[in-house]
Write a structure and sequence with these properties.
The complex is a heterotetramer of chains A (290), B (383), C (414) and D (303).
Chain B: H1 2-14, E1 19-28, E2 31-41, E3 46-50, H2 57-65, E4 72-77, E5 80-81, E6 92-95, H3 107-118, H4 122-136, H5 151-163, E7 169-173, H6 181-198, E8 201-206, H7 209-215, E9 218-223, E10 226-231, H8 233-238, H9 243-248, E11 255-264, E12 267-272, E13 280-284, E14 294-302, E15 307-309, E16 319-330, E17 334-341, E18 344-351, E19 361-366, E20 372-374
Parallel strand pairs in B: 3-8, 3-9, 6-7, 7-8
Antiparallel strand pairs in B: 1-2, 1-4, 4-5, 9-10, 11-12, 11-14, 12-13, 14-20, 15-19, 16-17, 16-19, 17-18
Chain C: H1 2-20, E1 25-30, H2 35-50, E2 54-59, H3 66-77, E3 84-87, H4 90-97, H5 105-111, H6 113-116, H7 119-125, E4 126-127, E5 130-131, E6 133-135, E7 139-140, E8 143-147, H8 148-154, H9 162-174, E9 178-181, H10 186-211, H11 215-218, H12 221-235, H13 246-254, E10 258-263, H14 267-273, E11 282-285, E12 292-295, E13 298-301, H15 307-320, H16 323-333, H17 349-364, E14 367-369, H18 379-393, H19 399-413
Parallel strand pairs in C: 1-2, 1-3, 9-10, 12-14
Antiparallel strand pairs in C: 3-13, 4-5, 6-13, 7-12, 8-10, 8-11
Helix pairs in contact in C: 2-16, 5-15, 10-12, 10-18, 12-19, 18-19
Chain D: H1 2-52, H2 56-61, H3 74-81, H4 93-123, H5 129-138, H6 144-157, H7 164-187, H8 193-200, H9 205-216, H10 218-234, H11 237-241, H12 250-258, H13 267-300
Classes of the chains: A mainly alpha (290), B alpha+beta (383), C alpha/beta (414), D mainly alpha (303).
GO biological process, one term (chain B): carbohydrate transport
Membrane topology (chain B): Peripheral membrane protein
Family (chain B): Belongs to the ABC transporter superfamily.
Amino acid sequence: MTDWLEKHVPKLVLAPSLIAIFVFVYGFIGWTAYVSFTKSRLLPKYDLVGPIQYEKLAASPRWEVALTNLAIFGILFILFATVIGLILAIMLDQKIRTEGPLRTIYLYPMALSFIVTGTAWKWILNPGLGIESVFRDMGFENFTFDWLVNPDLAIYTVVIAGVWQSSGFVMALFLAGLRSVDGEIIRAAMVDGISTPRIYMSIIIPSMAPIFLSSFIVLSHLAIKSFDLVIALTGGGPGYATDLPATYMYAMAFSRGDIGQAASSATVMMMIVTAIIVPYLYSELRPRHD
Amino acid sequence: MSNAMKKEMATPQTAKNILAIENLDKSFGSVKILKDINVAIEPGDFLVLVGPSGCGKSTLLNCIAGLESSTNGDIRIGGRSMTGVSPKDRDIAMVFQSYALYPTMTVGKNITFGMKVRGVAEQEQQRKLDEVAKLLQIDHLLNRKPSQLSGGQRQRVAMGRALVRDPQLFLFDEPLSNLDAKLRVEMRTEIKRLHQTLGASIVYVTHDQIEAMTLATKIVVMKDGVIQQAGTPNEIYNQPANMFVADFMGSPSMNLIPASAEKQGDATKISITRPDMEDIVLDFDREIEGLKSGKKSVILGLRPENITDSTNQHITKGQIADCRVDVVEPAGSDTFVVTNLAGKQVTARLNADATIIAGETASFAFDLSKASVFEPETGARIA
Amino acid sequence: MKNMLLVSSAFALGMAATTAQAEPQAEVLHWWTSGGEAAAVKVLMEEFEANGGTWTDMPVAGGGGDAAMTALRARVLSGNAPTAVQLKGPSIQEWYEEGALGSIQDVAEAENWDELLPEAIQYHLKCDGEYCAAPVNIHRIDWIWSNASILEDAGIEPPKTWDEFNAAAEKLQGMGILPLAHGGQAWQDATLFEAVVVGLGGPEFYRDALVDLDQDALTSETMVQVFDQMRTLRGYVDDNFSGRDWNLATAMVINGEAAFQIMGDWAKGEFIAAGKEPGEDFYCSSPSRGAYLYNVDSFAFFNVDGDDRQAGQQLLAKLTMGKNFQKVFNLNKGSIPARLDVSMDEFEFCGRQSNAELGDAIENGSLLPSYAHGMALRGAQAGAVTDVVTAHFNSDMSSEDAVAQLSQAVAASQ
Amino acid sequence: MTDHSMNDHQLDERANRNRLMKRIALRLGLYTLLILFALYYLMPLFVMVVTSLKSLDEIRTGSLLSLPREIDFSSWGKAWSGACTGIQCNGLQPYFWNSVLLSIPAVAISTLLGAINGYVLAQWRFKGSNILFALMLFGCFIPFQVVLLPMAITLGALKIAGTIPGLMLVHIVYGIGFTTLFFRNFYVTIPQELVKAAKVDGAGFFRIFFSIFLPVSPPIIVVTVIWQFTQIWNDFLFGVSFSQAGTQPITVALNNIVNATTGVKEYNVDMAAAIIAALPTLLVYVVAGKYFIRGLTAGSVKG
């Protein structure tokens, strides 16, 4: 008995977490998928009616906008957060005297939720109140920065605020990566007379491939989950120009009382997540030869 | 039938054997890591498991330690079957390649941790710690953390941790491979001395055949999960059971020269064909298995020290032949000369003062009294 | 193991909470969280506690009740519904159809609610003929708020039709004054829209289009004109309106940066808080030509267990309709009492005007539920209309396209 | 000849000076860029702080980005203990303690579970353990809006709806994925021989965990605690859905102050409240930010 216990302790220890994950993640995904085939309105109902929710979803111009926005936002957000994070990390790695305070400044947005910063961002980006008016007051009469109120450009302001929040974290990842690069390689390259930018481009950055992957995953999950960002900044507007799948789903479930529709959009979202995450998990966890 | 016989033979010995492994198999899924392993050692033996990486030697050691479970077969330590016995109850101690020192504990705590877990009295812990620390000359390091130690010091601490256990059996898993060359030689001597003073029973895994030769009282050579040969260092060196063992043990390794053997009446001749020079024909004074009459292709195994300078005064039974010298490698005490026989590079070991010049022809003496002969197909020793 | 522990300890806590009290209990979910609003609801709490009850406040603000609805759904699904919830319009019926609401008919009969409430409003509060919600106020939505000094300088009267409004706006624009302060949020766009619908189309058209969702009305020429007027209004708004909170738009009128704002009567509170006097410093007028768009806040009563909580519901329903609360709450909130027999003496100018016009509208049968504030349509349908309205207002979509999309979206949402 | 060498020397010197100038210019550019970025990151905080120090009149009339004419701290006091979050006007204070009560145990439990899960998945692998890990990781990526409704049903069934333990359970469950990831990736960098050595020394599963692995874990504990604390403290969605009167966390109260719908808005109080609500997480980042980077360096970023 004790032997058996001893042998299976690791599994037993893992079991509560696993059970929780199976119920609260996979059970709930299954529940959502099921409900997406019902006509649930205000509260979930369990009579199957076929794929009408998906047909409605496919026909909805608002959902189309949401998906397009996710693509635009996702790509730009991941790209800029990665690039800015990397640049900041490299700059901070140049033996900067004030590294500590600067690092904290770059990192702190991660500590704040958009309930806190949303209003401030809204003001800053609003042409009549924020940057545009400040520059105009300073005498730049023609300075224009009105993306927030332009339906075609508003999604880019969401990118700006999103990058603001997340690039510091990416910087931290890269900085950590830079600090753990083998110093000998760099010294060897310097002896070979290779210039510093060249060393970064061709030696250090490629060696941080796993960090690119980690930050890609963290950022893509943030992008897919982005919700309070949009709610706080634009409320999905102007019109529904900055709707994302997450806000669409939320609006359907909670302000429109159309849970079936919400469930179908959630199911599509989960499929997108799966398409991104599963290849990553596969590459991360396949048996490796060290 | 044969397994049963083996068992019958092994059983009466177990009383005396400190370690006996019988018909051990180990597989991961469909991959067989260990196949039908049978090993036994007596108290005071120093068993070295040697082989190239991936041969299963570390897995075997882990099985002995109980860190991995076997699929079939039995392991006995001190006569007691170890099936289902956890590592802590096997009365063993183990030293690891990476030393596996607990990073947050001081040296002293590292050494006493096991005793603390087992509930040994505080005083006893202290006494043993002092004893071992003195023995290993690490008494001045006891309050340091592992990160503040040099490689050699860590190695000593790891051994100290094993020694305080005072077990029936010590297990060493490539303990020297993380050290630099000089330290490795020093520590090798140290281990040997410890073995001699303590009279402990040891199972030692290494891929370094020199360590195996210098330390072992008994060597087991493994490849692909199968024991190739078990025996004393002398047996392994002089009578390798097959071409793999012959090639793996010894440095420089044994020359394996394609040749043909011919029975001419009572006498046996071995001839080596050379495209550019005349064949070398050598007398061989032992029977070759499977050669009753006629001709047979064989592989002739000759250690470099058995091919020497023909002018060497000490030659008694050498047979002389001329060969072209390709490369000369003076190594201080000896000079190694590389030549070409039957399309194979062949190394000869000459006296340091031999005057030989690359590119010229020189005459060599071949001593076949210690030669091995192998079957080309199977690689098995036939003489 | 750990979870078990959590469960059992929580269980113990829950047990303790339910057994300890026996007097009326009410947990009230609402989104009146600003200072003025809180003061208004506080009156109810004080009366409730004066009658021996225990009031547990459960405020959730945000998104015009969206966050509160999220919380409500979670609470109902977990079998832990609040005692009373700020709900309104068709969503009361929707929750009733889900089987979540209980009846307060006893109280309503005893207090004679049928006599005290306008019929149009009774309709919202009844589930299958029985009262299941108690009203607290009537908000008027279709107000044009104007800055008195700007209007005087320009020699303009507060507009009473859209034509008057357009003429005034043109004049102001000519003078370099921004005519309309507006916040570009979907619900504010919708607020403009419904005021235009009722002002241009009249009460019948409004009812056909935004209450009954009649396709003929939705695709009519009048609807095209409505969208034309929306486009015209867009021209009166500054460039930075997008995403602006309503109260910032109000501040623009207060500060003289803009002449008008079209907003419900809660905007009055901002004027008064800034020290402005209704009828003197600012005016209120309606473009609806006798019609009246209302938004009635009410407490709906959910099915709950326990005598104390049910007693709490009865008491709360009674007090909510009480004369004193109806007066004090609405004085604070800017709206007018839902029951018709409350004296309006203490109310200011715009409140009295609202009450007077309410009476007229009841007589004319032109008392209409606000679609923009969730009185006329169910969530999914109202949302479908709003999607088109806000998309049109924020782009250069033609009125004809907007009408076509509107009819399509409405059909799809049913 | 001498002329030449003189020239060479001068050229050298000039080249040196040029190089030095270039270095200084580069450095200057670097610092300028860093400071510009810092301004970008600080801007929203600046707006919040400045606004919180202004009077309501000044906010209504002046530019939102300008410095306050008179510094007025009264809105901070009001946000802490006087702002209305409903009928009660006790400010953020009571909710602050709810959040503390919620987040400290939730962070501790999810970190401990993550540590022990990571320990199993990195050091006690068994057949299929990698797949289980992948399944757990996938849980990190589920959008939380999706689980609100089924979670509500489940909490109701467990009879912990609306309680702090219920909310804690939610945070723990959806935190496990990340905490396990952090610890697992940290522990895989520790040689497996350590466990073997300890086993031979006679230590069991838990003994090895508590006396060998936990003591080496502070760097990754810092990372995990920062991450989890930020997530839980800042959460609004779960907080608003799974709390009831008396258990609401600070973000819900902040939302009630900031997002009041049809009342008079006091932006200075809103901003002060926002900063107060964010103070604990800010403090954690400022104090422990250094260890955060160090912890990431120590292994969590490595596959």
